[in-house]
Amino acid sequence: MSEPVTILGLSALYHDSAAALVRDGQIVAAAQEERFSRVKHDRRFPVNAINYCLEAGMVEPDELTAVVFYDDPVLTTDRIVRTLAHSGDKGLAQWLKSAPGLLGAKMRVPQLVAAELGANLPVLFTEHHQSHAASAFFPSPFDDAAILTIDGVGEWATTTLGHGSGNQLQIEQDIHFPHSLGLLYSAFTVFTGFKVNSGEYKLMGLAPYGQPIYAGVIRDNLIDIRPDGSFRLNLDYFGYLDGEGMTNERFAALFGGPPRQAESRITQREMDMAASIQQVTEEAVMAMARHLKTRTGAANLCMAGGVALNCVANGKLLASGLFDNIWVQPAAGDAGGALGAALLVAHHRHDAPRAAAAPGRDRQQGSYLGPELSNEEIAAYLDFNDYPAHRVTDDERASRVAAAMAEGKVIGWCVGRMEYGPRALGARSILGDPRSAQMQSAMNLKIKFRESFRPFAPAVLRDKVADWFEMDADSPYMLMVAPVRPELRIEQSFSTAEDLRAIVNRPRSTIPAVTHVDYSARVQTVDGVDKPDYSDLIAAFDALTGCPVIVNTSFNVRGEPIVCTVQDAYRCFMRTDMDVLVLENFVLFKDEQPAFADSQNWRDEFELD
Amino acid sequence: MSRNLFQYDPVIGYRFVPGLKGRVRHEGGGYLVRCNNAGFRSDHVFRDAPTPGKRRVLVFGDSNTAGDGVSNGKRFSDLIEAQLPDCEVYNFGLPSSGTDQQYLAFRECAGAMHYDLLLLCPMVDNIRRNLQDARLIHSGLSGELALLPKPYFDLAQGALVLRNVPVPKGHLPVDNAQADEPQIGSVRALARQAMSHANARFPGLRGWTQWLRRLALPAEYNSPNTLGWQLMRTILAQWIAEARAPVILAPIPTFEHIDGNIRAAPYRARFAELSRETGAALVDVLDGLRAQNATRPGSLRFPTDEHPTVAGHAAIAELLVPHVARALEGGLSNPMQMSAE
Fold first, then answer.
1. Per the CB < 8 Å rule, is A48 touching B25?
2. What pLDDT, on a 0 to 100 scale, did the predictor assign at position B265?
3. Which band of pLDDT confidence, cut at 50, 70 and 90, is reported for residue A496?
4. A423 lies in the same domain as A568
5. Do A296 and A186 share a domain, yes or no?
6. CB A51 to CB B30 under 8 A?
7. Which of A23-32, A334-343, A483-492 has the lowest mean pLDDT?
8. Interacting residues of A17 by C-beta distance below 8 A, sequence separation 6+
9. Per-residue pLDDT reduced to its tens digit, A355-367
10. Are A540 and A398 in contact (CB under 8 A)?
11. Which of A280, A314, A321, B3 is the most exposed, fewest CB within 10 Å of its CB?
12. Are residues A500 and A567 in the same domain?
């Protein structure tokens, strides 16, 4: 019997560090470093994520066939140096910012691996967008698919079009830096007062409050989208080549004034800018998808890269019917590069067959690829600290928690393997009743400690999704947006002069906590295959209330990485107004817990996102 | 991931979380930890009844026995088992424990168990732990220094009296003065306190604190009449007396002993006396380890961590295997000191 091909994939030293382990083409484990280090978007070498992956596989370092890094530092340096040469003196600031990372740790990846694992292993490098493409295609349900990757920038590529078949994929076309749809979206994110790499989601959520009045301005001045889907940016309006910011004064002049300051009041201008860039982004994505369809003739589409997290665009692409099926890698950002790189090496270099998949199901295992807690570990923690808890069976857990939700209680739910990717999918989630008009506001202000204009996402039983949303497809990763069914809506209108908060707090449907101002919802479909505990809970809630939908938001407070360990979960539970905490088969009630000794300034631990 | 490896035990103080599978980051590249349902780091399910066709060895000790720094299969206990096909080795090693806790683990968890040989591997340094009612540890996930309460024995007219049981739950603040502090002497107490603070604030100064620690190394072995030795001797003697099978006593020297930085004669003399007194066979691995260390300098321990490397465990196993084999063949009828070279 031959030795298994075991590949450790790493993404690090740019945005979201992560590690992934693949054995004989099958995903064993994957996790982001931030969950362990408790530093949001941690970009450091992912020592803890590596440790977890080897733990999950019970793999010794010397059993690894290879370690693979998700991009090519030499090519990235080439891009930076050429950009500097092109920009002259004005590019110096950018160079000084980039050089330490490029010439530092990124050039020493093999040494970092050797130091961490105590072994001299083969260390390989892929290209950034190859990693994204592999993360999109190989775990997908498809044997054959077109592949579209779009992000800010990798080495040179910002967008790639490819094709996958069997255990092979090919990148066929690409668009190079500085022309980048991801950077265009990020420029608007920064200009409207949000943070790059975390605020894009907020900008997308803001869009329905605005009118796309600037879409023409954007098309006329900032981006030229061609019939084949390719595009070019007008760099006269951006600062990322030769300045210190994403945009410059010409950009500001185009939109009637300086950028919004972070945390200041959001005005109608920002809402309209959000609506406008969202519309243009959707047009660009649609144009590229159309070209890709023509080029490949594929029935299926796979997507990855940060822009693939734009679930509104994804939903419209799905609704267009251009492709029969769309699958988006749930860890679409750089963290997913770790998985893609590992899969690429397993399949391309070692010819590993793709993992078996049941008909219609993907190979991502629900993205529940992170660590899980055992009841014994939880019991040890609770016992050591004398925290009161009730041990329940799986059935009792579902019925008791469903009853608590129906009473308006907010639940911290920490069950099963942690999610890989930015979204909580029912393993590290805060849950509640979507029928409650107060739920969105209560969860935002008392639990997440944010004033958000974004509604929460609904988790709905797969076999009932069409009864509640205008959609009848799988969306297990919350990466598709669909409208709430018309008969469930509460008709309303709002004027552009209204305060955002007033609009947010107005019920829009019979499930107001998960219905956006435009009646859309970021749907997660749940079935009993990948996540039976979660499915059972929603079914129990449905049996009790007639509503197979629950509110799902990530188990954290603003700026905090999603909880990972039992300590993280208990601490977050006690710091917030959650009522019930579920840790596997233990249920804890807030009113039974002893006073929690904590720092008065604990919120300072987390930088606001 | 950074997992809590231990659960509270009201008598022993703690044991491993039952069924735990984890990996610990470490300067040696990290190591895998697998625990059984009894809460010990072993790949065996511990059974009371004998296993047909196998002779059973129970091994007790601290982190050197539990295998801090190396994966389960690379520990000396597992290597002994691998080299003696008819033998199964149950590892009861408990990191950071004193001989008192190791004895309590035997009483609590092996009382009804069948075994053919007891292999007691106290780390020489454990003698000081027996004098403490709490151990300075790095707390599971936070890594912060904390004091963890532990059981301990007092001597009353030469008899052991168990104290601090049930062991209090939770951590004590590091600054808490320990009740037994006067017993270990003010100079050593100060040295230990300085070392703890230095390690906490300046982890990079571990080398310096090790040097400082040398000043505080056990004086308890210098005479058979010190409180520390009286306590250790009594615990081990009672343990050996309760054993229902032959016993091998194999004290594990510190690397300061192996490197020849401090005198080993006092501890060797005390364990030889104990062997004669109790009838337990003494296997002295020091000379053998020194010889191997001379051949492969620095290979037996990690550069910073003081635990044995894979090579260190292999060396210990190599030294113990002949004696374990002989003991299992009934060769311990005339116990005497056995030098393992």
1. yes
2. 94
3. low
4. yes
5. yes
6. yes
7. A483-492
8. A10, A11, A32, A33, A34, A42, A43, A44, A45, A46, A49, A335
9. 998 888 999 999 9
10. yes
11. A321
12. yes
What value does the mean pLDDT of chain B take? Answer: 88
Give the ipTM of the model, two decimals please: 0.92
| Residue B177 confidence (pLDDT) | 47
Question: Inter-chain contact B4–A380, Cβ cutoff 8 Å?
Answer: yes
* Chain A contact set for B32 (CB, 8 A): 54-55, 58, 60
Which residues on A lie below 8 Å from B23 (Cβ)? 51-52, 54-55
Question: pLDDT band at residue B202, thresholds of 50, 70 and 90?
Answer: low
Closest chain B residue by Cα to residue A116: B29
CB contact (8 A) between residue A55 and residue B23: yes
> Domain check: are A303 and A358 in the same one?
no
Do B3 and A379 make contact, defined as CB atoms within 8 angstroms? no
Q: Do B23 and A377 touch (CB under 8 A)?
A: no
- Residue-level length of chain A: 609
Q: What is the mean pLDDT of residues B209-219?
A: 60
Nearest chain B residue to A564, by CA: B1
> How far is the alpha carbon of A45 from chain B, nearest alpha carbon, in Å?
14
Give the tokens for residue A520.
């859309």
Q: Residue A432 maps to which CATH number?
A: 3.90.870.20
In a mutational test of the A interface, the residue from B1, B8, B32 whose CB has the highest number of chain A CBs within 10 Å is: B1
Residues A272 and A415 in one domain: no
Instruction: Evaluate whether A148 touches A301 at the Cβ level (below 8 Å).
Output: yes
HSE at residue A122, side-chain half, CA atoms within 13 A, is: 11
pLDDT class of B181 with cuts at 50, 70, 90: very low
Residue of B nearest to A115 (CA): B29
* Residue A555 predicted with pLDDT over 90: yes
CA distance A48 to chain B (A): 6
pLDDT grade for B124, boundaries at 50, 70 and 90: very high
Could you give all domains of chain B from N- to C-terminal order, each with its CATH number?
6-168+219-339 (3.40.50.1110)
Give the bridge partners for A469, in sequence order. A484
Domain of residue A50, CATH code: 3.30.420.40
Q: Both A311 and A185 in a single domain?
A: yes
Give the residue numbers of A annotated as catalytic, written as ranges: 15
* Residues of B whose CB is below 8 A from A428: none
* Residue A598 counted as domain residue: yes
In chain A, how many domains are there? 3
Residue of A nearest to B5 (CA): A377
| In a domain? residue A140 | no
Residue closest to B267 by CA, chosen among B229, B225, B237: B229
Q: Is A397 left (phi over 0), alpha (psi -120 to 50) or beta?
A: alpha
Q: Check whether residue A318 and residue A421 sit in a common domain.
A: no
> Which one of A271, A303, A327 terminates a domain?
A327
Q: What's the CA gap between A454 and A517, in Å, rounded?
A: 9
A338 lies in the same domain as A396: no
Q: Which domain holds residue A199?
A: 181-327
Residue-level pLDDT at B3: 83
Residue B179's pLDDT band, with cuts at 50, 70 and 90, is very low
Contact A565 B3 (CB under 8 A): yes
Residue A463 covered by a domain: yes
Distance CA A35, CA A32 (A): 6
Q: pLDDT grade, residue B180 (50/70/90)?
A: very low
Query: B268 or A558, which is more confident?
Result: B268
- Residues of B within 8 A of A55 (CB-CB) are 1, 21-23, 32
In a domain, A451, yes or no: yes
Residue A596 CA to residue B262 CA, distance in Å, equals 48
